[in-house]
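Summary for the steering committee. The consortium agreed at its last meeting that each partner would contribute one worked example illustrating the joint modelling workflow. Our contribution is presented below. We chose a case with several input lines so that the handling of multiple components could be demonstrated. No manual editing was applied between input and output; the record is shown as generated.
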Amino acid sequence: MQKTTTANPTARQTDLTEIFDTIEYSDAYRITYLANSIVFPTYAAIKRDFGLVRAEYILLACLSHYDELTARDVAQISMRPRNTISRAVHRMVAEQLIERRHNRVDKREASLTITKKGQRLHKRIAAYLTQRQEDVFAGLNVQERQELSKLLRKTALHTAALNQ
Amino acid sequence: MQKTTTANPTARQTDLTEIFDTIEYSDAYRITYLANSIVFPTYAAIKRDFGLVRAEYILLACLSHYDELTARDVAQISMRPRNTISRAVHRMVAEQLIERRHNRVDKREASLTITKKGQRLHKRIAAYLTQRQEDVFAGLNVQERQELSKLLRKTALHTAALNQ
DNA sequence: TCAATATTGTTCCAAATGGAACAATAAATT
DNA sequence: AATTTATTGTTCCATTTGGAACAATATTGA
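What follows is the complete predicted structure of the assembly.
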C-alpha cells in the first residue's frame, strides 16, 4: 500500500512495480506478468505481419514439434477450448499450412500434420518469440538464466501432470 | 519431433510435454504455459463465482495494492488496452467496488481507489489464485521455490523497465 | 448383444476484446 | 499568446472468444 500523489502531476510518483512484492500470490503474478510481457507485443506483431490469430500460431507451433497430433491433443497442450482449435484447423488447412487426414481406426478423430509452407511460417514466427524472450531474460546472467530454465522446466512438468 | 501413432488408438502414445524442451523459445514457452495453467482455471472460477471478467479482477488487484491509481496506471501495470480498463472502471464503480474522483489539477484524469467492499472481494479472489499458485509450485522444494521467486522477481523488474 | 455413457470435433450464439477514431484537457513549441 | 502536439479516458465497431448444445463415433457395462 504505497503513497501516490496527484498533487504534483508532473512527476511519476507511484512505483508501478511494487505490486510484484506486495501481492499475495507474488510468484503467480510475476509469472503472469512475464508471460504477458512476452506474448502481448509478439502476438500483436504476428497478427500484423502474418494475419494469424493466437489459436492459429499455437496450432502451428504444436504441429512443428510433433509428427502428428489430433485437435484434442492441441487443445490439451495449449489449454485452449476445442472449438477455437477447430476453427484454427479449418482456416489453416485452407491456407495449406497444415494437413488433415481422417483416422481410419477411430473415425471421430483426424490427425493433423504441418506442411512445408507451415514450417517455413513457423520459423519466421519463432524468430519473433525468440527475440522477445531474449529481451525479457537479458537481465539475468548465464548461471541465473540456466537455473531459471531448470526450475521452470521442473515446474512445467509438475503442472502438466496436474493438468492431466 | 516425436513419433506418434494412430495405429493403436487405445493408448496415449504421444508425450505432450516434449514441446517444453524441443521448442525454440523454451523459456518463453514454459513461462506462458505456467501462466496459463494458473490463470485459465482460476479465471473461469472467478467468473463463475463472482461474475467478474478478467479486466475487472485485474483492476481490483491493482487497487488493492496502491492507495490510488489512474486508469492509465492500471493499463500500464496490467498491459491491457485502456478501453478495457475504462469499461471495468464503470462497471465496478456501479457495483461500489471502487470509487472514482476527478483530479482537480489535471482534469483529464481521475484517481481510482478501492472500497471496503472491493477489498473484501479481492481477499476472496486472492485466495483462489494463491491456492492455484501453491498447486502449481508444489513440485519444488523450499530452496528451489525461493530461488525461483528471486529469479522471477529480477526478471520481472528488468522487464518492467523494458516495457516502460 | 444392446443400451447407456463417453469422446471427438463442430456449429451456434452471446459475450469479451481490442484497434481506431474521438473529445477534452494539458504540455510543448513558435 | 497562439498553434501544434501529446495525453487521458471514452465510444464505436468489427473481430475474437468460449460455453453449451449437438451429431457422429467409440467404449463400457448390464
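Chain B touches chain A through 78 residues (CB under 8 Å). The helical segments of chain B are 19-22, 26-50, 54-64, 71-78, 82-94, 116-137, 142-163.
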